[in-house]
Amino acid sequence: MIKKILSVLLISLVVAGCATTVNTTNMSADEHLTYAMKLFNDEDYLTAINEFQTILMQFPGSSVVDQAQYYLAESHFKKQEYILAAYEYSKLIKDIPASKLVPQAQFMLAESYYKLSPDYQLDQTYTKKSIEEFQAFVDFFPTDQRVAEAENKIKELNSKLAQKEYNAARIYEVMENYNAAVYYYTLVEETYHDTKYAPMAMYNKIKLLIVKKDNVYALKEISSFLQKYPSDINIAEVKKIQESLSKTSSL
Question: What pLDDT, in 10s, does the model give residues 24-36?
């Protein structure tokens, strides 16, 4: 019985092996692409990558080159090989700019860097690259249906950058390096003004300026804060600070 089962398994493996071995030598570009796409759709991304690369080498001037290039990138993306995916998407954009797949490739290039974007404490090179590429997508393809998604991701990534700088300011504040803290709070407030960290940074900056006894600068920042963030959670306290500083200045 065991021998029978082993024999059936062996035959099945041989048949399966034969079924996946396809001779593509005499295939046309279209036929080869169809075969490669079947592999892609069957989630056999490793084999699909080899076939898409073969198409690009064997049929460099054919009408299927842009599809082969795009799905080569997609295969890497599906395998979570985001750096390779980004490289292949960018090749399509640079080498075949007239392709109808360029908008998709531009979005996915940004998405690849988005996947590589780490926690805010770490180096944010890929975060910045993702923002840059999403912004390029919005600028070049403003009517695309994914523009709203791209803009939301830009906001999300900008918030991560703001959090990193805000955290740096907090660390300098704890260390009582107030000049450096004020610098980073200012950076957050001016560069990432559309994130939740901007009013937080400005509020902390005002309090630090008071510690530094720079009341003139503090009053200027308070006036700006009240104008920019009239509904902020700290608005009542900031108004009290303004009133107190104004009285002190008038004496």
Answer: 888 999 999 999 9
Instruction: Dump pLDDT digits (tens) for 183-227.
Output: 999 999 999 999 999 999 999 999 999 999 999 999 999 999 999
What is the rounded CA–CA span in Å between residue 105 and residue 201? Answer: 37
The crossing angle, in degrees rounded to 10, of helices 197-211 and 178-191 is 150
Q: Report yes or no: 132 and 90 within 8 Å, Cβ to Cβ.
A: no
Angle at the Cα of 228 (from 226 to 232), degrees rounded to 5? Answer: 65
Residue 115 one-letter amino acid: K
Q: Are 149 and 187 in contact (CB under 8 A)?
A: no
Give me Rg for the CA atoms of the chain.
28
Is the CB of residue 183 less than 8 Å from the CB of residue 205? no
Helix axes 125-140, 147-174, angle to 10 degrees: 150
DSSP H or E stretch at residue 21 = none
CA-based max dimension of the chain: 103
